[in-house]
C-alpha cells in the first residue's frame, strides 16, 4: 500500500462548547481518526481528506489520466468513505478501507469513461480536437502519450495493471479487491502488458523516449 | 505472448509515468475539500458531486444526438418520398383511352407530373404512358411532337420510345417529334443531355443546343401483300433496325437523310436489292428510302437519272420523291432537289407531303437563293401547316432570318413562338427579341 504525503500544520477544531481552536491533527493515528470520523466530527473528516486524498488522487490519476475525471472521482470516493465510515470494523485499517473504496469506484469510473469516450469520439471529437490541440504543447507531450497508451486498454486490464505496477499490489490482493479469480488477474496482467508494449511500439516518439530511458538505466547499472 | 525483452520497456513506461503524473497540489486539495464539504452539506448523492462540467457536456451530446436523429429521419423520409411512384395529370382537351393520350387537333395538352416534370403535347400528338415509377416515366411517342421538361434528379430515369428509337433522359428540356409514317425522329435539346439509342446498338448523346434527326425504315405492315412476298428477306434484315444518324448544331444544321414510307413505284427496271418493277400500285417500292437511310445518296440520284428524272417526277410516289429530294440536297444537287420538291407540291397539293415540301424548299433556299426566298417558303409552310411537324423549326429559322431585316415581324413570330413553345430551343432568342421591343 503506498503511503501518501502527510499534511502538516495547525488545523482548526472545536471544543465541546463549539469554540474553534487550533491544534495539530497530523499526529492523530488512523484508528482514532476513523472513530472520530465515524461520529461525524468535522475536524476528523477534514483530516481524513487531507491525509488520504493524495494517495487516492495518485491512484485515480494513473488509471484515469484526465485531471477532471480524477478530481470528480476523488470527490465521489470520499463521499462514499464518509457515508460508510460507520461500517468500518477495524478502525486501524482506515487506509486500506479508503483504498478499497477507491479501487471499486475506479472500476466503475473506468467503465463509464469507456462508454463516454466512445460517445465523445462519436459526437464531439471533431469539435474537441481543435481545443485540445493548443494544450498539447511540448512539455506535456510524453504524458499525453502515456495517457493515450493507458486509454487504449480495457478498463479492467488497466485497473489490474495500475494496481500491480504502480501501487505494487500482489496479484492475490488485486484478485481479492476486484472480486476476480487469481487466474483471471494473471491473464489480465499479461494482456495489459502486451497491450502496453504494442501501443508503445506503435508510437515512435514514446518508444524512442522509453528506449532512451532503458539505455540510461542500463548505463547507470553498468557503472 | 510478451517477450521478456519487453520487460525493461514496460518498466521504463511505469517509471516515466510515475515521473510525469503530477501529485495533487495544495490548491487542489483545498478546493476539493470545499467542494466535498458543500456537497455533503447539501446532502447531494454521490453521483451529483461530479462537477457541472458533465452537465455542460450533456446539452452538446443531447443536441448532436437529436440532430443526428432528425437528419436520419429526414433521410429516411426523403428516401420514402423518393420511392413513391410519380403521379401525373392531363391538362387540356386531350382524349384518353387507357394509357393512350391523343391531343386535340386544335390545341396543345400537357402532362404534369408530381415532380414538376411536364410534357407538352403538340396538336394531334398521340402518346402512351407505358409506366410511371419513382424515378420517372416511360412514354411511347406514337406520332407528333412533344416538348419535354424533366426535372433533374440524381436517380431520375425517363424513357421515350418513338418507333425503333429510345430516348433516355435524366434531367433536361428538349423537343421531340416523331412522324410514324416517315419514320423520322427529330430531337432538339434546350438544356441538359439526352441519350438516343438507335438500332442496331448505336447510341448518340445530344447536348444542350444540339439537334438530331434520325430515320428508320418503316415497318413492314405498310407494304402490300405482293410487296411483302417479294421483299420479305430484305426487310427482315433492314426493317426498323436500320436507322441512320446525323448530329449537328442547329445554327448550321446538317440535315440528315429522311426515310419515307412505302410508295407507289415508278416505271423502269428496278435496281433495288429486291427489285422493283412497273408503275402499278401493287408493285414494290423503290429502294431509295432504304438507300437513303444507309447514306447511299449518290446511288439514289444515279438510279433516278438512269430511270429518267422527268419520268420519276411524273410517276413516283411522295415518299420516293422526298427521298430523291433529300438525296439530291445532301450531295448538293440543289436544282434537282428543288425540281423534285416543286413537283411534289404540284402533284400532291394539299397533302402533308406537299406542305412539308415547302419547309424543305425554304431550307434549300437558305443554302442557294438567300433569306428572302427562304422566308417566303417558311411563311408558306407556317400558313399551310400551322401545327405541322416542322412548325417549331420553321418559326425558329424565320426568327433568325428576320432578326436582321424585319424586327417587327421577327418579334411577332417570337411572341407566337414563346406562347406555343416556351421551352423550345429558340426560346432564348425569342425572349431577347420580345425583350428588345419592351425596351
Q: How does this structure look, described?
A:
The complex is a heterodimer of chains A (223) and B (439). Chain A has a two-stranded antiparallel sheet. Chain A has 223 residues and is mainly alpha-helical. In chain A, strand 1 and strand 2 form a beta hairpin. Chain A folds into 2 domains: 1-123, RNA polymerase sigma factor, region 2, helix turn helix motif (Rna Polymerase Sigma Factor, Chain: A), CATH 1.10.1740; 136-223, Winged helix-like DNA-binding domain superfamily/Winged helix DNA-binding domain (Arc Repressor Mutant, subunit A, Orthogonal Bundle), CATH 1.10.10.10. Chain A has helices at 30-38, 42-64, 67-84, 94-123, 125-133, 141-151, 155-166, 171-178, 182-202, 204-222, and strands at 11-14, 20-23. By secondary structure, chain B is α+β, with helices and mostly antiparallel strands. Chain B has a 15-stranded mixed sheet that branches. In chain B, a hairpin with a 4-residue loop joins strand 4 and strand 5. In chain B, helix 13 (407-420) packs across helix 14 (427-438). Chain B starts with 6 loop residues before the first helix and ends with a helix. Residues 219-284 of chain B have low confidence and may be disordered. The interface between A and B is large, with 47 and 40 residues.
Pattern of helices and strands of chain B: HHHEEEEEEEEEEEEEEHEHHHHHHHHHH
Structural class of chain A: mainly alpha
- In CATH terms, what is the architecture of the largest domain in chain A? Orthogonal Bundle
Which regions of chain B are unreliable across 5 or more consecutive residues at pLDDT < 50?
A: 219-284
Number of domains of chain A: 2
Outline type of chain A = elongated
Q: How many alpha or pi helices of chain A?
A: 10
Helix content of chain A: over 70%
Q: How big a fraction of the residues of chain A is strand?
A: under 5%
| CATH domain topology of the largest domain in chain A | Rna Polymerase Sigma Factor, Chain: A
Assembly level: heterodimer
Q: Mind describing the biggest β-sheet of chain A? A: 2 strands, antiparallel
Radius of gyration of chain B: 36 Å
Q: What structural class do the secondary elements of chain B suggest?
A: alpha+beta
Unreliable spans of chain A: 2-11, 15-22, 120-139
Rounded radius of gyration of chain A (Å): 21 Å
Number of DSSP-assigned strands of chain B: 15
Distance between the termini of chain B: 88 Å
Major β-sheet strand ordering of chain A: 1-2
